Amino acid sequence: MSSDVTHDPAVRAFVAEHRSRLVEELSAWLRIPSISADPEHADDVARSADWLAQRLVRAGFPTVEIWPTEGLPAVYAEWPSDDADAPTVVLYGHHDVQPADPIELWETSPFEPLVRATPYGEELVGRGAIDDKGQVYFHVVGLAAHLATTGRTSPAVNLKLVVEGEEESGSAHFAQLLRDHRDRLDCDVVVVSDTGVYGRDAISVCVGMRGMVEVQLEARGPAGDLHSGSFGGAVPNPVTVLARMVARLHDADGHVTLPGFYDRVVPLTDRERELLARLPYDEERWLANAQSTATYGEAGFTTFERIWARPTAEVNGLWGGYTGPGGKTIIPSEAHAKLSFRLVADQDPADVRPAMDRWLELLRAEGTIPAGIEVTAHYEKPGVGPFLTPLDHPALQSVTRAMGRAFGTEVLYTREGGSGPQAALAAVLGAPVVFLGVGLPDDRIHAPNEKADLEFLLAGAEAAAYLWADLAATWER
Amino acid sequence: MSSDVTHDPAVRAFVAEHRSRLVEELSAWLRIPSISADPEHADDVARSADWLAQRLVRAGFPTVEIWPTEGLPAVYAEWPSDDADAPTVVLYGHHDVQPADPIELWETSPFEPLVRATPYGEELVGRGAIDDKGQVYFHVVGLAAHLATTGRTSPAVNLKLVVEGEEESGSAHFAQLLRDHRDRLDCDVVVVSDTGVYGRDAISVCVGMRGMVEVQLEARGPAGDLHSGSFGGAVPNPVTVLARMVARLHDADGHVTLPGFYDRVVPLTDRERELLARLPYDEERWLANAQSTATYGEAGFTTFERIWARPTAEVNGLWGGYTGPGGKTIIPSEAHAKLSFRLVADQDPADVRPAMDRWLELLRAEGTIPAGIEVTAHYEKPGVGPFLTPLDHPALQSVTRAMGRAFGTEVLYTREGGSGPQAALAAVLGAPVVFLGVGLPDDRIHAPNEKADLEFLLAGAEAAAYLWADLAATWER
Predict the structure, then answer these.
(1) Which ranges of A151-227 would DSSP assign to H, the alpha helix?
(2) Probe site for chain B from A255, A291, A301 (most B CB atoms < 10 A)
């Protein structure tokens, strides 16, 4: 896609000169065990926020603030462009990290970062090296390179940096934080640096994530558990009925049977399918990663298409009746199932509830839910929307060019099957989200011996430098 | 069936004369709180056994023994007939009782029995009044009447009385007890006095019970729980698969789909269906008892036929994945289901396992169990066989005549949907089992204010007196 665009020798030289400083400063930050899931590390998360805030002040940001939440603090920094028409970018990352457990599997101390040689160059080992301190820090180098090589005293874009402190513990207060600061976070585009590329041999950019709606179904039959001898065969069993409902949730081709479920699904274009198909897919490796022995799913779609571009319905949990040791010959009084629907653009989470209501009506009408069984659906949360950046979106084009120049290769496209705080960014800020991430599948995020390839962190810094200039140059307001 | 047979005035007079003694002696026994489920009452269960043993000695049994078990003791008494060709009867009852909880709902003290007037006569209120001390005790009166009115010095049948002490806590050691004493318990027929009639207006005899096989199914998918965003839609979900298996367990008509499951089922004869149909069935009352709002089941059968004469498959419990509060968006690694099959004559519990194996093969072949999901079946127990006494069996004819004479009415037939220690009697002793029981549906067995109608206990004694004479007179060896 950008094989005709070459790198800027000045940017590359600047970044290369800052290699040892990147290692030194990032290591200092990594030494702070900012584990958000562990209340005993709350002070460390605060120290981590302070460290970043001070570093951003030194980087030249005229506005740097610690944003407290009801949980752990985020860091906010703002550097307006001197150019009147500059686009405004919210840049997202997080400064908290995963716990180090199981600690005994680390080859080095998780919070004593260390540079090691690899067949590919060097790697920095330590908790947070790539997820996400390394990817926040490369922006400090990238911004400096942007300023130094363009001779600017302000970025080419209005830069608003939001670095969350609770991403690894569920981002419980992040959506509220965004809503509280909605006006200051007004922007044209959101850049997220918390993801990775498909592989060393397949540099890629993520263009979408699935949304999600969770629902709990309750099936109630007899008012109490019944003796299965005295009543078995003569009253409906709510566990059996719920099992039949789950069986009815997909048709023989693996399509979800909720009426109208696919109405707003944006079909994959031939171009998108072709691009996804170019990602090197090794089924054996994929299955090993999935701890599974066979793939499965909607007929007519590849594994990547199923996970990234198609909506799904999964049972996350189901229970009813006696589940202890031995036997208890009852007809259970009730049964429960937790379902989650993953949604793709342009499905709306708000549509799932009425579709579920129509589905339940259908199941009652056809007898899958018989007289004597009452089924209700409960929603604890409103759900999260999917998002998809069209391949021709200008911001995505800018990211693609920046990544292509930094890595000197064609850039492919992936999506994510899950949902993250990025969904809240897209929803609350109402802006397109693009991803500038340089993680590798073997970076062992959330696992012992997390690492970042130094060449990839430097490439990230280089891509960031290109991105601000490219966005400013190509953006049409 | 026996409306042309009248009562014997001498027997009825004997029984009526012993009414106050029955109340007095049975009350003394009921004062012993022989609660087998409560270890603190182990001594009371032993005292109860001693009380009965002494009473049987006084009744004239030449052999009376306490049979210890690894749990609580049974009482055994033997009284051979002087007649050389007399048939041999094992008479079964139990002397342990249910706990009295919830004690606050008793109108009288559960172990201070009391006679109260009712619209129908009098009732004896107290734990064990009908289940089962009252029904063991009426045999003492009945046997005395039999001897006194025939002028015999020994019963007309060889009588072997086995009164268990652990029935209300699961008969854990009963089958072993029967096996240990198998030779001494050799018999032609087993008479069980631990059940009831269909109603005050429908005197009946139970002619069969269902057997049972329990199986636990395990469905295993990914080696660990997976993130439903990263993998959802592309690997098989074991909970979904198990739900589909449960849905597949019955066809649209409610038939169980295990291959060959019905091969050995003895069909209901027209005569049996006609007799069952004559039992007064009040669906509203039946549903209230079932705590349900609708009946359900195999097409073409009535509620009684479904429960008593048809085999079933029920899910007693099913679980997999996340079952706690809130949501956890996983593809679970495994799922489990506890199933129980109720069997009717002449199904063999040993046939269920190979039928299940064939069923699993079928489900694999058709794709209900897809590649990537491993399903196994586990059996903790060998299962219990069903039994059914043919309507023309001589022992059943004797019981029918005895009940008909005692109650002065036609006798109908019921069955039981469950399985009890009677199944062990039939299996270990290899003899037909008939039921002589006079409980009423409103006797509140296992509940507060358990009672026995005195007229019914006396009718039981009268029926017992007729039974021994009838069996001896009509038995063909």
Answers:
(1) 174-180
(2) A291
C-alpha distances in Å from residue A204, one per residue of A310, A402, B304, B369, B381: 20, 11, 67, 36, 57
| Closest alpha carbon within chain B to A415 | B230
Task: Name residues whose C-beta falls within 8 Å of residue B241's C-beta, 6 or more positions apart in sequence.
Answer: B219, B221, B335, B368, B369, B370, B373, B375
For the segment B100-152, what is each residue's pLDDT rounded down to a tens digit?
988 999 999 999 999 999 999 999 999 999 999 999 999 999 999 999 999 99
d(CA A4, CA A411): 12
Candidates A139, A33, A132; CA nearest to A77 is: A139
Residues B306, B296: Cα–Cα separation, whole Å: 9
Q: Number of H helices and number of E strands within chain B?
A: 14, 18
**Which of A283-287, A447-451, B421-425 comes out lowest in average pLDDT?**
B421-425
Structure ipTM: 0.88
- Residue from B15, B5, B9 nearest B462 by CA: B15
- At A313, the amino acid letter reads A
Tokens of B16: 């009526």
Single-letter residue type at A336 = H
- Cα separation of B84 and B80, whole Å? 9
CA A293 to chain B, closest CA, distance in angstroms equals: 5
Determine whether the interchain pair B318/A315 forms a contact, defined as Cβ–Cβ distance below 8 Å.
no
**pLDDT of A2 higher than 60:** no
Contacts of A269 (CB under 8 A, 6+ apart): none
Q: Tell me how far apart the alpha carbons of residues B443 and A471 are, in angstroms, rounded to a whole number.
A: 85
φ, ψ (nearest 5 deg) of residue A358 = -65, -40
In the prediction, which pLDDT does A477 show? 66
Q: Pseudo-torsion of CA A32, A33, A34, A36, nearest 10°?
A: -170
Q: Give the pLDDT band of residue B2 (cuts 50, 70, 90).
A: very low
**A196 close to B230: Cβ distance less than 8 angstroms:** no
With 0-12 / 13-18 / 19 or more C-beta atoms within 10 angstroms meaning exposed / middle / buried, residue A94 is buried
Token representation of residue B367: 């794709």
For A86-116, the pLDDT digits (tens) are 999 999 999 999 999 889 999 999 999 999 9
CB B38 within 8 A of CB B99: yes
Residue A50, token pair as written in the block: 């302070």
Q: Is B61 exposed, middle or buried (0-12, 13-18, 19+ CB in 10 A)?
A: buried
pLDDT of residue A214: 95
Nearest chain A Cα distance for residue B300, angstroms: 12
Query: In whole angstroms, what is the distance from residue B430 CA to residue B471 CA?
Result: 18
Q: Which residues are CB-neighbours of B27 under 8 A, at least 6 positions away?
A: B113, B124, B126
CA distance B475 to B84: 13
- Cβ–Cβ gap B327/A340 under 8 Å: yes
- Per-residue pLDDT, averaged over B190-211, amounts to 94
Residues of chain A with Cβ-Cβ distance to B241 below 8 Å are none
Nearest CA-CA partner of A407 in A436, A449, A443: A436
Give the closest-approach CA distance of B242 to chain A in angstroms.
Answer: 8
Q: A75 - beta bridge partners?
A: A66, A163
Alpha carbon distance B96, B94 (integer Å): 6
Distance CA B239, CA B381 (A): 25
Name residue A321's beta-bridge partners: B317
Q: Do the beta carbons of residue B177 and residue B185 sit within 8 Å? A: no
Q: Which positions in chain B touch A317 (Cβ < 8 Å)?
A: 239, 320-323, 328, 330, 332
Domains, chain A, ordered by start: 9-209+386-474 (3.40.630.10), 211-265+311-378 (3.30.70.360)
